[in-house]
Design goal:
This protein is of the alpha/beta class. It has two helices and four strands; from the N terminus they run ββαββα. Helix content is about 25%, strand content about 35%.
Length: about 100
């Protein structure tokens, strides 16, 4: 199933990306960590090509700037979830 991500970000206190704003401007290539909750905003079915696609909407997003003590926790969460999904276990040398 092809997935798309809506470009719109949540408004108000549900958008925590400002936490990385200064760091992104100073160090654009530095990896930042985010955690987001999503919902499905649209499902499109094409009977001709027998495909279904979905568009996801970000409902809430929080950022962990590089240097934040929780950055490594967010990174570890990402890695462990990837390992569970793919079955590829990260070796200590990969860190």
């Amino acid at each position: 199933m092809p997935l798309k991500l809506s470009a719109a970000l949540p408004k108000g206190d549900r958008n925590g990306l400002e936490a990385v704003f200064d760091d992104v401007l100073k160090h654009g290539n530095r990896e930042q960590m985010i955690v987001a909750s999503i919902t499905c905003s649209q499902v499109v079915s094409s009977p001709r090509s027998d495909t279904v696609s979905a568009t996801l909407r970000i409902e809430a997003i929080e950022a962990f700037p590089c240097g934040d003590p929780r950055w490594h926790d967010a990174r570890e969460l990402l890695e462990r979830q990837r390992e569970g999904r793919t079955g590829k276990v990260r070796l200590p040398l990969d860190e």
